[in-house]
Amino acid sequence: MELAAKLPSRKLLTPTFICLWIIMFLVEFVKGALIVSILPVYIGDVLKLSAFAIGLSFSCQYIGDNLFRSPAGWLIERIGFRMTMTIGLCITFGGVFLITVMKTMGFIVLGCTLLGVGTAPLWPCVLMGITSVTEESKNFATAMGVIQISSLGGTGLGPVIINFLVGLSYTLVFWILLGCIGIVILVSLLLPGNTGGKSKSPSTAGSEDQTSLWKGGLWENIKQTHRQIRNNLKVSPLLYPALFLQSFAIGLLTPVITLFVRTELGLSPEAFSLMLIAGGGITVLGLIPVGKMVDKYGTALFLNIGFSLSAVAVGLFAFTRNLPAVWALVMLIGLSYACILPTWDTMISRILPKGEKGTVWGLFLTIQGFGMAMGPAVSGKMWDGWGAPAPFVASAVSMALLFFLHLHLSRKKPASPGKPIR
Predict the structure, then answer these.
(1) 57-81 in b/e burial notation, b at 16+ Cβ within 10 A?
(2) Under a CB-based contact definition with an 8 Å cutoff, are residues 108 and 102 in contact?
(3) What's the DSSP call for residue 321?
(4) Spatial separation of the C-alpha atoms in residues 129 and 250, rounded to whole Å
(5) Are 118 and 92 in contact (CB under 8 A)?
(6) 205 contacts 80 by C-beta, under 8 angstroms
(7) What is the pLDDT tens value at each position of the chain, 422 positions in all?
């Protein structure tokens, strides 16, 4: 009985949710393997292309992912849930295929761009799917905890597993990744046609909108969407900087954490890997219990704990050189993100308007994506100009600002549901 209480509810494990879990895991597995383990070495050492080619490829991937999240959310409302996801995954397959068979800089950059564009619908589709499957059971946060496990698991396992295979053959590795994408394309075909807010059956979802979309109604659709969002999305202006800061704080640490641990703390790669496993393990273990408590008690308490704990722990991490204390701070950071990850999207889901949920999800995800994209550039400049602790202090300050912004937001009443953010 105790074990059953810790597992996700059976009501949550619907065929749609299981498909979303598989898709999220395998897509993040492929992206993690490519971005972390394969592309930097493959482009530079194997293809003998310049560092500029590596940087441009990565930038185009991030830009494609961020810019197309809002259009992807908009398309979910118009052509259906399943078709949007499947089209995106087919574009992803095309991008990885180009990287596999082409050897010139132009095609590699194009392949990385298609990878970003193709994976852009992933999170809007997943969030819309979770919104649908949890509408009756009211366990969105629990579902987010389970999905975050698949996302983090795929991102982490991708580089680890692929590192064992890269020495054998890059061709083998690329075809394994293409096989993974082929699997998720097939899984995406099992999704319902629509999980959005419109009252249409899955079998006919999106058919009426597709007709108007392809018969010259595209511009009118866009104008109508803009009017509906402008009239129905009544949120505090402070939400937008909060969305940016939530990912900006993470982006600040992404490019410098390895360098900091190696140069400032003097840890070996093996010790650093153990530290990542420990901190990440605490996050993963906490996601489902926190999600269940958020569904029961609301979001405000857990976000306040998460933001404040992260601000303090990351700030102290910048100046701590005692290894036991460093390990303790890593554990606290892992705990803080266990409080934040399933809870933040739950808070956002409760302030969405009734119509155009997919579009608004895409818009919010785009704002968060820009925070993640800008963070690394800013942290590099801060490291060079002000020293190693600077990016960590900036991340801690961002989390502290987010804490105070959330205190204000949690006292506001969103217009759509007519209830305070909990």
Answers:
(1) bbbbbbbbbbebbbbbbbbbbbbbb
(2) yes
(3) -
(4) 26
(5) yes
(6) yes
(7) 333 444 455 566 788 889 999 999 999 999 988 887 788 888 888 888 887 787 788 778 888 888 888 888 888 877 888 899 999 999 999 999 999 998 888 999 999 999 999 998 898 888 888 887 787 777 888 888 889 889 888 888 888 888 788 778 888 899 999 999 999 999 999 988 765 444 343 333 444 444 445 444 555 555 555 555 565 567 788 888 999 998 899 888 877 787 788 788 888 777 877 888 888 889 989 998 998 999 888 889 999 999 999 999 999 999 988 888 999 999 999 999 999 988 998 888 887 777 667 777 778 888 888 888 788 778 878 888 888 889 899 999 999 999 999 998 887 554 444 444 44
Secondary structure, 3-state, 183-238:
HHHHHHCCCCCCCCCCCCCCCCCCHHHHHHHHCCCHHHHHHHHHHHHHHHCCCCCC
CA distances to 170, 181, 276, 416 from 410, in Å: 50, 40, 32, 15
| Angle, helix 51-67 to helix 357-386, in steps of 10 degrees | 150
DSSP class per residue in 74-90:
HHHHHH-HHHHHHHHHH
State the maximum Cα–Cα separation within the chain, in Å, rounded to a whole number. 66
For residue 168 the two structure tokens come to 């054998």
**Token pair in block for residue 321:** 């050189």
Amino acid at 263: T
